[in-house]
Amino acid sequence: MDMKRWNNLKLELYSLTSKARKIFSRAYEDITLCIFYDVRERFKLLMVDKEENIIYEREITRAEAFRIINTRP
Question: Which residues contact 53 (CB under 8 A, 6 or more apart)?
């Protein structure tokens, strides 16, 4: 997906438009890190600001997703 299309998309609408579900979320000061798993069995890493606008989206591997999930703060 083109990042310009996602810039103004809220996090709550992301799961509906991409048919993905959130499997992980961790909040730091003003940014939240989320990992989504979609119907095509792909993992997506999203960074969201405090107004829940998507800042950054990247496809990651299963190994990277579980490495992030199992890392303790």
Answer: 7, 8, 9, 10, 11
Print pLDDT tens along the chain (73 aa): 445 455 566 777 777 778 889 999 999 899 999 999 998 999 999 999 888 888 889 999 999 999 999 987 7
Q: Give strand pairing partners of 48.
A: 32, 54
Structure-token pair, residue 46: 């999203």
Domain ranges of the chain: 3-69
Residues 6+ apart with CB under 8 A from 19: 38, 39
In 10 A of CB 58, how many CB atoms?
11
Instruction: Report how far residue 24's alpha carbon sits from residue 10's, in angstroms, rounded to the nearest whole number.
Output: 17
User: Do 16 and 38 meet the contact criterion of CB atoms below 8 Å apart?
Assistant: no
